[in-house]
Amino acid sequence: SIANVNCCSVSLCHLLDLPWEDVLVPHILCYLPLQHLVSLQRVSKQFHNLIKVYLSNCRTFHLSPTSPCIPREAFCSMLKDNKVLQNLSLQNCSDWVSDKELLPVIGQNQHLQRVDMSGCACLTRHSLVAVSLSCMHLQHLGLAHCEWVDSLSLRSLADHCGGLQSIDLTACRQLKDDAICYLAKKCSNLRSLSLAVNANITDESVEEVAKNCRGLEQLDLTGCLRVRNQSIRTLAEYCPKLQSLKVNHCHNVTESSLDPLRKRNVVIDVEPPLQRALVLLQDVLGFAPFINLQI
Q1: Most buried one in 47, 56, 180, 263, CB count within 10 A?
Q2: F-box/LRR-repeat protein 15-like leucin rich repeat domain location, by residue (predicted)?
Q3: In contact, 121 and 99? CB cutoff 8 Å
Q4: Where would I find the H helices in the chain?
């Protein structure tokens, strides 16, 4: 019967019979974690070719932080044909990735908007310069714990990527005020900035950021020992959209400059003095005391 014929036809339809570039790639494979796609390549030659098509057209290359470290050969193979990447995270290959592997990827992907090179100790300033020259539309950049980042490479970034919205420069210890001030003047659209764990940063950097980046929403100054109240007051004056400020271990920043920001409901990672005192007292006593102020 016609019904039986239809049932047989449906039962004989396999996943790989669906249109690859119109259905499988944009509507199915895009929901699978990258590590699962890599495993699928080993199933058959057809699946290998399908995943190859997907990888050459995928916009995002991002492995889960809990995934195993991706081998060098797999990284190069997976990205060698891709020219449409918009989001590149090197989190799972930070232990080994070098300029040799990264520069070809950057050179052929000029539409990158988000790049995370955090913790990639084997890279050099040449990779950052390549990003600045190739990725004119870059909006988000992660460089945390990349101690190879220097003033010249950051200036190159500022000159070519004026639309940058967020950058993480945590523990980029070569950078000093002159580089940060230059970045602030060139990238006035910055909304999120981390200068944490850099003893070179002073009020000069913070004030320049505040005066040039009026739309700033998040600023991390954790461990910037030379930052003082003066620049925090400037920040409060010039950045009305500020939502989050981190000043833990900034021993020269006191409540006198933080209180106006608290009144604007800015989230600050340092408790007011009274709360800090109560927490310390609780740690000592082992419980939260009831304080009778009438005694």
Answers
A1: 180
A2: 76-261
A3: no
A4: 2-11, 25-27, 34-40, 45-57, 72-79, 99-107, 125-134, 151-160, 177-186, 203-212, 229-238, 255-263, 273-285
* Per-residue pLDDT at 33: 81
Predicted confidence at residue 34, as pLDDT, reads 78
DSSP labels for 82-130?
-----EEE-GGGTTT--HHHHHHHHHT-TT--EEE-TT-TT--HHHHHH
If the chain, 295 residues long, is cut into consecutive pieces of 10 residues, what is the mean pLDDT of each piece?
A: 50 80 86 82 89 90 73 88 95 91 96 97 97 97 98 98 98 98 98 98 98 98 97 98 98 96 97 65 61 47
What's the CA gap between 217 and 190, in Å, rounded? 8
Cα–Cα distance measured from residue 182 to residue 244, given in angstroms and rounded to the nearest whole number: 23
Count CA atoms within 13 Å of residue 151 on its CB side.
Answer: 11
Q: Enter the tokens of residue 130.
A: 């390549």
CA distances from 33 to 15, 51, 61, 78 (A): 18, 12, 10, 14
Spatial separation of the C-alpha atoms in residues 251 and 270, rounded to whole Å: 11
Residues forming a β-bridge with 141:
115, 167
Q: How far apart are CA 248 and CA 222, in angstroms?
A: 5
Token readout for 62 is 């991002």
Closest of 216, 219, 231, 226 to residue 194, by C-alpha: 219
